[in-house]
Amino acid sequence: MKDIWIKLATIDRRIIYLLVFLVVALPMIFRMIMPIRVSNEVKMAFSEIDNLKPGSIVMISIDYDAASEPELQPMLIAILRHCFSKDIKVILLGQWALGLPLGEMALNQVAKEYNKKYGEDYVNLGYRPGYTALMVGIGKEIRDFFPTDYKGIPIDSFPFMRKVRNYQQIDILVGLEAGATGDAWVQFAGARFNQKIILGTTGVVAPDMFPYLQAKQIVGLIGGLQGAAEYETLVKKAGSAILGMPAQSFVHLLIIIFIIIGNIGYFILRRRK
User: Fold this and answer.
1) Residue 271 has what pLDDT?
2) Helix (H, G, I), strand (E, B) or coil at 8
3) Which residues cross the membrane (predicted)?
């Protein structure tokens, strides 16, 4: 029996890589679906947007790049579907320049699904340098930083943008975060201008955002692929997050099994020495 544990503990790493590949690939290939339990913080985020009236304005900040796309892009798509299904206007911008193409891809995809038109139902302002200065500046006059959209078209040529001067006309700010930009949104847009904020973050960032939620400095939190799957569940339209949850869950279980086997084999080998 001990020899079996030792063999398992010293198994060829190529077999481990193969098992990980199979555990990730098979659920995706067969499009397995698992039950999703929706957390309170995601329900809060969904309810805030769901309670908005048609014609309300949601600003979405793309603060991530391709490295965090698997977790945050499904959130963006689900939130856009939610907004467009309720005829809510969307302003998209970003603090990470490399993330803006991801935002544009999501806008183009979801706008086609709901027959939304650029300039009438949504606009992409793009990226401007400035970071915290930009966040404060939007609180005074958005045109100081964004006189035009990402194409160079004056924002006053878009009907719904003519009434947007600062945060007072923005009903909710949604920050999709792969780093510390969410902290800055809370500190500058939230604390200084009382802007309602929902944060969607990668799994590793989410725990740091819970103090803001508990202090009511944000009104909702969507954390990691799990959070994205929960939001897709509430929107009632499955996307890559729901499809990715079985693979993520199974590979986590496999890693735990590897850790247990490795530790048992280690202690048996140490006793023999």
Assistant:
1) 76
2) helix
3) 15-34, 250-269
pLDDT value, residue 95: 95
pLDDT of residue 6: 67
Q: In the predicted model, is pLDDT for residue 101 greater than 70?
A: yes
Q: Which H or E element spans position 227? A: helix 224-235
Pairing between β-strand 172-177 and β-strand 122-127 as defined by DSSP bridges: unpaired
The type of residue at 260 is I
**Both structure tokens of 120:** 């009438």
Read off the pLDDT of residues 192-208 as tens digits, 9 standing for 90 and up. 999 999 999 999 999 99
Beta-carbon-side half-sphere exposure of residue 204 (alpha carbons within 13 Å): 4
Q: Do residues 224 and 71 make contact, with C-beta atoms less than 8 angstroms apart?
A: yes
Chain-centroid distance of CA 267 in Å reads 41
3-state SS track over 39-52:
CHHHHHHHHHHHCC
When comparing pLDDT for 13 and 74, which is higher?
Answer: 74
Q: What pLDDT was estimated at residue 89? A: 98
* Strands ordered across the beta sheet of 122-127: 122-127, 89-94, 57-63, 172-177, 197-201, 220-223
Residue 265 confidence (pLDDT) above 80: no
The three-class DSSP label of residue 30 is coil
Work out whether strand 122-127 and strand 197-201 pair parallel, antiparallel, or are unpaired. Answer: unpaired
Query: Which residue has better confidence, 75 or 32?
Result: 75
Assign 3-class secondary structure to 164-225.
Answer: CCCHHHCCEEEEEECCCHHHHHHHHHHHHHCCCEEEEECCCCHHHHHHHHHCCCCCEEEEHH
What is the three-class DSSP state of 92?
A: strand
CA torsion, ordered 241, 243, 245, 248, to nearest 10 deg: -110
